[in-house]
Amino acid sequence: MAEELPTYCRICEPLCGMVATVEDGKLVQLRPDRDHPVSKGFACPKGIAFTEVVNDPDRVTHPLKRRPDGTFARVSWDDAMRDIKARMLRIHSEHGADAIGWYWGNPGAFSASHTLWVAAFMLGLRSPHLYTAGSQDVNNRFVASEFLYGNPPTAPGPDLHRADLVVIVGANPLVSHGSVLTAPRIKEELHGVVDRGGRVVVVDPRRTETARAFDWQPIRPDGDVFMLLSLLHVLFEDGLADDAAIAAQARGAAHLRQLARPFTPESTAEQTGITPDTLRELARALASTERAAMYGRIGTSLGRSGTLTTMLLDAVNLVAGNLDREGGSMFGTLGAPFERIALRLIKALVPVGHDRGPRSRIGGFPAVLASRPAAIMAKEMTTPGKGQLRALFVSAGNPVLSCPNGDELEDALDTLDLQVAIDFYVNETHAHADYVLPATTMYERQDFPIPFQTLSLTPFRQGTDAVIPPVGEAREEWEVIDELASTLWRRSPLFFGAEMVRRTGMLTPRRAMDAVVRLAEGGDLFGLRRGGLTFARLLRDRPHGQVIAPHLRAGALRTVNLHGDRKVRLDAPQFASEIARLAERPGDDPAFPLRLIGMRELRSENSWMHNAPLLLRGGRKHLARMHPDDAAAVGAAEGDRIRVTSKHGEIELAVTLTDDLVPGVIAIPHGWGHKGRGGWRKANTADAGGGGANVNRLMSSDPADVEPLAGMANLTGVPVRAEVVAPAAQAPEREAATLGA
Ligand code: SF4
Question: pTM for the complete prediction?
Answer without folding.
Answer: 0.96
